[in-house]
Design goal:
elongated; Rossmann fold; three-stranded antiparallel sheet; alpha/beta; 9 helices; single chain; six-stranded mixed sheet
Length: 338
């Protein structure tokens, strides 16, 4: 928490000192002898009366402390929806995505979770789809047209190897092209006598991110970590998702035409390194439910940013409530406001 007018914080230590001084003066007033024959009743009532007298004073002191904090104009980081963002969905469509360790199979679960993720993003977010198996293909350029991105996802089919590094290269290129397109100036028909600088959206408002989903090891093309370095240099975080379990298998024919089981565990180490290199986050999704949770979490991270916002109103409201409670308890237990 920060404060726009921190000088008001100097009032804070003075508040308890003032009330402590007033309390001491009250206790040092001349005490009158009271004739009371039933000492047992007096002993039982005195402690109760003592703490009841202290409550209104304590509430009043606390109210002044809270109001002093409010006068300092406190600011807190609050979550606000992003206005713009570009999200690249890089989806593995290698043959290992046919494994059924994720119900009903990895490919179906990936398409379903990604489609749900797209539908939950703000409408102004641009989304692109990159698929990769033996090579990487751009199936949908960055666009706000949800129909085209959902259609691209629906067309995914699992076959071939895993060109994870090439998918990252293609995704980074899409981000770079999209950024250049966003900052291109619009030519004016007549020159302005007092030209104002072009407004480029705040990067906290308009961000770019790559969501990389893979279920196996890179088998061809560029080294994924080299591609991750390029993403890092461009300032693009990669959120990597390892789909599947170590026990995942697919059925493939051998050289004699016989079917055999081939283990297809995810490459946890490489995917985690990609996220660390680019400043993104790494997730593991051993089930369809886990994958859906991952995409929900990513939607919150990408769809919102934090911004300092003045919260003086909150302190003013709490201070007012404390003042009211101090007045009510004083009237109720002491019969007066002071």
């Amino acid at each position: 928490m920060t404060f726009s007018s921190p000088l008001w914080l100097l009032v804070l230590p003075a508040v308890p000192l003032v009330f402590a001084g007033l309390w001491g003066l009250r206790r040092n007033k001349t005490r009158y002898a009271i004739s009371f024959s039933n000492t047992a009743v007096l002993a039982s009532v005195a402690p109760s009366a003592s703490w009841r007298r202290a409550v209104p004073v304590a509430l009043l002191a606390l109210a002044f402390l809270v109001l002093a904090l409010g006068m300092a104009q406190p600011q807190a980081e609050v979550a606000v929806p992003r206005d713009e963002a570009t999200v690249i969905l890089a989806v593995d469509v290698s043959g290992s995505m046919q494994a059924t360790d994720v119900t009903p199979d990895r490919m179906t679960a990936a398409k379903k979770a990604a489609s749900s993720f797209i539908n939950k993003l703000p409408e102004r977010f641009r989304i692109a789809v990159v698929s990769f198996s033996d090579v990487a293909n751009v199936l949908a350029q960055p666009t706000t047209d949800r129909a085209s991105t959902l259609e691209a996802l629906a067309s995914l089919e699992a076959e071939g190897g895993t060109a994870m590094g090439e998918a990252l290269i293609q995704s980074v290129q899409l981000v770079q092209d999209d950024r250049e397109r966003m900052v291109l100036p619009t030519p004016a028909i007549t020159p302005s006598p007092d030209p104002s600088p072009s407004t480029v959206p705040d990067e906290r408002e308009r961000v770019s991110a790559i969501l990389l989903l893979s279920d196996g090891y890179n088998t061809t093309g560029v080294d994924p970590l080299s591609a991750a370095t390029q993403a890092h240099e461009l300032g693009v975080p990669v959120y990597s998702i390892a789909l599947g379990t170590p026990d995942g298998v697919v059925t493939v024919p051998d050289q004699f035409g016989n079917q055999r089981l081939l283990p297809v565990p995810p490459d946890y180490a490489t995917l985690e390194s990609i996220a660390e290199t680019t400043g993104g986050d790494y997730f593991e999704a051993p089930s369809e439910r886990d994958l859906q949770s991952v995409y929900d979490s990513l939607g919150e991270r990408i769809g919102y940013t934090t911004r300092p916002d003045e919260i003086t109103y909150a302190f003013s409201g709490v201070g007012a409530v404390l003042l009211l409670l101090a007045a009510l308890t004083s009237l109720l237990w002491r019969g007066r406001l002071t």
